[in-house]
Amino acid sequence: MATREEKKAKQLSKIFEKLEQRKRNLNQRPRNTKKTKLISIQSNFSCGPQVIIPEAPIFRPSIEEFSDPIKYLTSIKDKFVQFGVCKILPPEGWSPSLDVSNGFTFSVRSQPFGIKGETKDEGFYFGDGGVVNFKTWKIAADKYFQKLFPNQQNLSAQAIENEFWRLIYLNNPSLFNIRYGSDIEGTFFVDVATDDIEAKKTYSGSANWNLNKLPILDGSILSNLDYKIPGVTSPMLYIGQIFSRFCWHTEDNFLYSTSYLHSGASKTWYAVPGEHANGLETIAKREFPELFAKYPNPFFLKTLIFSPQLLLDAHIPVFKVVQAAGEFVVTLPQAYHCGFSHGFNIGEAVNFALDDWFNFGKKAIDQYRNLKVDYGVLIFDEIICKISDSKQIMTLRAKNLKPCFDQVINEELNYRKQFKNQMQFNKLSKRKKKNLIKYEWPEIFGFTKCSYCYHKCYFSVVKNYTINKLYCLKHFLEINQNENVNINESNSKPKSRLKIILHIRCKKSYLLELSNYLKTEN
Questions:
Q1: What is the C-alpha separation between 96 and 211, in angstroms, rounded?
Q2: How many whole angstroms separate alpha carbon 14 and alpha carbon 11?
Q3: Which of 283, 421, 431, 495 is 20 to 30 A from 81 in CA distance terms?
Q4: Cβ within 8 Å of residue 328, ≥6 positions away
């Protein structure tokens, strides 16, 4: 009697024969039609390099554990830190309502099929794929799946995965184009869906897994913000089709993330643990030197993808998750991840932060400043100040925050001291001292960005009123000290006649008071 594997092998053999026949038939057609280009890549769809990646852990919380997301995530994070990613299966019977209408419209991006996305004179990007409505998108997505895999409704995740990487490594974006509805502001969460009154009572606490609520629950660091950041403190939607992909990246500010797949086909995820992030970057620089020569960090563009096998060959650990509808995926700080859809699906994602995030947040800010890129979404100094000033800080949080907070304020106070030395503060008259340093924060400043490194200044900012530019203390000092670079970039006036003011929002006494408070709570 034939085994299941033998039956599957025979089925695949028949499929290959049919596809080879289709290819021979297509070769007789003119090759300049779009249809030929699309279908001609179908042959031997499972004959690409088989990518075997070890799987990340799966957690199955009880109803009681599931009722408090922050507490539960805190309890399990150390169990998957060496994986960078995990899957969480909600308790049986938990199913949030899906609130989406056929008339819902959204923008999509085109994703040319290649390793590096699409390169044009103005940059490296995924293009505009237009605006679609939900009903027509689903119909088109299902048809596209059938064109790629005719008469194949029950393909294994492994078969789809193999074909994905085969097509990626053809590296010919002109063959065909995938579209992806990504980074759509909004949510499809409503509440727990069940007609059973007792079940509603049982699962009422589980409504906290509604991604509109999770980032701002008590215990989440982001709950200290009094404004929304789309995709960070409020969710974004992801509506995919076969092979819609999200490329290698870390979360903004090295935050945690959680993604829920509402319905549709599965997604495959790959992740590299945060402690091996530098290893992944080293491999990418080796493989794509021209890209890193052109951009400070191409990963910020989220358009670069390459096989995880490349990392495994370099002894960099990579782990896989296949996420089905109704399942959560959680990624850890600084963990690189990428993936793709197996067909039409609807996902939703948001960020959050637990008490061990502070050092990752500081590391991310330092990276952005060094690379001089405007990719951070959080005002890190604001967050650590507000948490310290809340006077409701827990002992564990204080223990994690204290070293990071002290490092940040020591840097800030040291820069202030250097500023006084550079500007010969002690030799100035009393009137000039008052004009040089002002303990005020004009409303027009709001949350200011350094003109040089794009750092979001919170404690203080230097304004050059002569050229109307703002600088963080760190880079004002560097530029002002460099004899080859005058802070007056127009060189229209000598330094002695520049109007420069250091505006201070947080006084030294206030910062030291917060540090002492953290010490008492530690």
A1: 11
A2: 5
A3: 283
A4: 87, 88, 89, 90, 209, 258, 259, 260
User: Closest Cα to residue 251, out of 480, 84, 495, 28?
Assistant: 84
Residue with tokens 């507490």: 71
What is the C-alpha to C-alpha distance for residues 75 and 363, in angstroms, rounded to an integer? 24
What is the C-alpha to C-alpha distance for residues 315 and 283, in angstroms, rounded to an integer? 11
Please identify which residue in the block is written with the tokens 């932060």: 353
Conformational region of residue 118, where left means phi above 0, alpha means psi within -120 to 50, and beta covers everything else: beta
Sequence letter at residue 244: S
247 touches 303 (CB < 8 A): yes
114: left (phi over 0), alpha (psi -120 to 50) or beta: beta
Kindly report the pTM of this predicted structure: 0.83
Structure tokens at 201: 């009572």
Spatial CA neighbour of 416 closest among 357, 359, 456, 457: 457
For residue 363, count other CB atoms closer than 10 A to its CB.
16
Report the alpha-carbon distance of residue 380 to residue 232 in Å, rounded: 14
Show the low-confidence residues of the chain (pLDDT under 70): 1-51, 114-128, 171-176, 191-206, 391-396, 446, 483-498, 521-522
pLDDT tens, residue by residue, 195-245: 444 444 444 445 789 998 899 898 889 988 888 899 899 999 999 999 999
End-to-end Cα distance, the chain: 68
Q: Compute the distance between CA of residue 511 and CA of residue 168 in angstroms, rounded to an integer.
A: 51
